[in-house]
Every structure is written in C-alpha cells, then in structure tokens.
Design a protein that fits this description.
This protein is of the alpha+beta class. It has four helices and three strands; from the N terminus they run αββααβα. It has one domain: Alpha-Beta Plaits (2-Layer Sandwich).
C-alpha cells in the first residue's frame, strides 16, 4: 500500500504503520471510505462491506493498531510495493 496516499486521505489519521503491514485503528476510523477507492490492492473495505472470509482482519487491525504509531508524515511507497501487490494470501509474512 502506498503509505503516502493513505496519510493524505485519512481525515482522522487512523492508519498505523507496523514493520511490514498497515493497520487501521477502528476507534479513530470514521468509516468515511475515502481510503477504499485509493487502496492500490483493494484491501480496504467499508466496515459494512468486509467480506465474510476477511472478518478476522477487523480484530487483527484492532490488536495491531493499538501497538503501532500513527502515520503522520507523508512517505513514498516502499520500493518493492508493486511486487508485493501481486502476491495473494500474505498473512504468513506479517511481522507483529
């Protein structure tokens, strides 16, 4: 995900950055859906549209966001972002 795009879009700075993953702090998110259309890998959904097989990510976002710092500065995408975007089912690579 292009971190710089998420920072500019989120009116509440709900995005949190981990070692290799972004999380959304659900208590800060106002579900405005500005980020949904901007996500280059279609990984963000309005809360009412989260697919059943991805509901576990809501709890994961809550857990991870509480321990990670908010994204408050604009950043460029990581150099390998396009390569990672092509990989499906990356959950096993998550660094907590």
């Amino acid at each position: 995900m292009q971190i710089h795009a998420m920072r500019r879009l989120c009116p509440t700075d709900a995005f949190r950055e981990g070692p290799n993953f972004l999380a959304i702090e659900p208590d800060d998110c106002i579900d405005c859906t500005l980020c949904v259309a901007e996500c280059p890998v279609d990984a963000i959904f309005a809360q009412c549209d989260v697919p059943q097989d991805q509901m576990h990510f809501i709890a994961l976002n809550l857990e991870l966001a509480r321990g990670w710092k908010p994204i408050i500065d604009t950043k460029a995408a990581l150099p390998d972002a396009d390569e990672w975007a092509k990989i499906k089912n990356k959950f096993q690579f998550l660094v907590r």
